[in-house]
Design brief:
Number of helices: 10
Structural class: mainly alpha
Largest sheet: none
Shape: globular
Helix content: over 70%
Length: 208
């Protein structure tokens, strides 16, 4: 109970951050529309696992080094932007389904493997320098320096699980029959919209 107030603050800040549209959101929505629930859930798990990466380097102080070294931070920004553009290219090429092709998300053929989907989620979040800044502020401004390492580690595990569950829930909601029927044969327009969002997010990373 000693660290309950600190934990609640972290949970609230994280909720606002994870619910805000960003690269993770765009990729999960895109994969849900393009490949269905299963692939989207694996993508969500990848996003959650990437949180552990941010937590790990934040615990050893590397987030401070990355954030305070301009060329290193810029390198991460360009690398992340390039990857987002790569994902956007695939989304923008999305077209209407061929005749006879199922429009129900769960029945769509998995054009990518579960492993690739997991890595897609992991790289999207792991390469995001904005996430680096988020965890830097979290571990310096919100979490007390005197908080034990084990407690900080538990915070990090919670953040990873909460992030993964949030995007798994989003994947599930987007692939329910009602949503799938609503999207119908026009789902490729949502796919393209996510592509445009990814391009915008990539540009924001580069421009600052």
């Amino acid at each position: 109970m000693q660290y309950m107030n600190e934990f609640l603050t972290i949970a609230l800040v994280h909720l606002v951050a994870v619910a805000s549209p960003g690269p993770d959101f765009a990729v999960v929505v895109r994969n849900s529309v393009a490949y269905g629930r299963r692939i989207a859930i694996y993508t969500s798990i990848g996003v959650g696992l990437a949180i552990l990466l941010h937590v790990a380097y934040s615990l050893v102080g590397l987030s401070v080094v990355i954030a305070t070294t301009p060329w290193l931070y810029q390198a991460f920004s360009y690398l992340a932007a390039a990857y987002l553009l790569f994902l956007a290219f695939g989304a923008l090429r999305s077209g209407p389904p061929k005749d006879g092709e199922s429009t129900i998300q769960n029945e769509k053929k998995p054009l990518i493997s579960a492993k690739k989907a997991l890595w897609m989620g992991f790289l999207t979040n792991g390469l995001n320098p904005k996430a680096t800044l988020f965890f830097l502020s979290l571990f310096t401004a919100i979490i007390n320096i005197e908080t034990p390492f084990t407690v900080k580690l538990m915070y990090g595990i919670y953040l990873a699980i909460a992030t993964g569950l949030w995007f798994c829930f989003l994947s599930y909601m987007l692939s329910t029959s009602k949503v799938a029927d609503f999207i119908g044969k026009k789902g490729y327009w949502l796919d393209r919209a996510m592509g445009v969002l990814l391009v915008g997010l990539a540009a924001k990373l580069v421009i600052g």
